[in-house]
Design brief:
Blueprint: H1 2-6, H2 30-48, H3 67-74, H4 78-138, E1 149-151, E2 154-156, H5 159-171, E3 179-184, E4 187-195, E5 198-204, E6 208-210, H6 217-229, H7 231-257, H8 263-279, H9 285-292
Antiparallel strand pairs: 1-2, 1-3, 3-4, 4-5, 5-6
Helix pairs in contact: 2-4, 4-7, 4-8, 5-6
């Protein structure tokens, strides 16, 4: 039908308006042909619009009519129409079941492997941040002063000198892997080359924290202290993430345990389809044709 219309409404047609007529004769073979086209269009639409998990479908054009089907059509047997409708409906339900099974497998994988692994990582991060908070508390600034920083084996007790030494040490690292260049308030300082003119600076305790440095030597010390002071915020973020992952795990287990909601309908309609096939002698098209031959 689409090809026929395309032969009329196409480039080169000189008519501004085209009328396309489709003639159908009541109670004839036309009804079967139109129903076949309807079934085919449903499958094509499902595949082309991603409304089904399947990426292929059987071409209805390749389905040949048996003598029994032609006989039923000629006799106007209403069961052939019911059989066609059931065939489409059973196919739709089987697609839905395949989608259900695909989702079930993904949920089972998530519940068995991925979510537990992510939960373990979140728990490790929480434990690590807690340990780092204890480390930070154990190395405070003395009386509002400066706790001191060690850079390349030398200890600096003045904030500006420490900031300058840190900036110099950071840019001198050529390695793309983290290289230890000092320590500050119980944390190891590392630097690694990222790209031309750019290095990544991290402060590592139980967990590593990337801190972006600026151009001010004393300002960088303040940036570092502010970043480390935000450890409680990071702790709350991971606690919230852990709670969300645990909720996802429970939901995945619950959803994976649910049966296919339309299983009873699929079984009932499949049984009726088989019953109609047997009644109409459609169980073996090739056999029917061979016998008639």
């Amino acid at each position: 039908m689409t090809q026929r219309a395309g032969r009329i409404v196409r480039q080169g047609n000189l008519n501004e308006k085209v009328h396309i007529y489709r003639y159908v004769t009541e109670s004839t073979f036309d009804s079967y042909l139109w129903q076949t086209l309807e079934a085919k269009q449903k499958f094509i639409s499902q595949v082309m619009t991603s409304r089904t998990p399947l990426r292929s479908c059987e071409d209805v054009d390749e389905t040949a009519l048996s003598f029994a089907e032609i006989k039923a059509l000629c006799a106007g047997d209403p069961r052939i129409k019911e059989r066609m409708e059931l065939d489409v409906e059973v196919s739709r339900l089987r697609i839905m079941k395949a989608d259900y099974q695909s989702k079930k497998f993904r949920l089972e994988d998530a519940a068995a492997k991925y979510l537990p692994a992510q939960i373990g990582q979140a728990e490790a991060m929480i434990a690590g941040i807690r340990a780092d908070m204890d480390t930070l508390a154990a190395h405070p600034h003395p009386g509002g002063g400066f706790a001191g920083m060690k850079v390349n084996g030398r200890t600096y007790t003045e904030k500006d000198k420490a900031g300058e030494a840190l900036m110099d040490a950071v840019v001198m690292v050529p390695d793309t892997k983290p290289v230890e260049i000092g320590s500050y308030r119980g944390f190891t300082i590392t630097s690694q080359f990222v790209t031309f003119g750019e290095h990544k600076v991290s402060f590592k305790g139980a967990v590593a924290y990337a801190i972006e440095l600026g151009e001010s030597a004393t300002g960088n010390i303040t940036r570092i202290d502010n970043a480390l002071a935000r450890l409680p915020e990071h702790l709350e973020e991971y606690r919230a993430k852990l709670a969300d992952l645990e909720q996802q795990l429970e939901s995945a287990k619950a959803e994976a345990a649910k049966p296919f909601a339309m299983e009873a309908e699929l079984q009932r309609k499949s049984a009726r389809l088989a019953e109609l096939d047997a009644a109409l002698n459609l169980g073996s098209k090739g056999g029917a044709e061979a016998t008639a031959a």
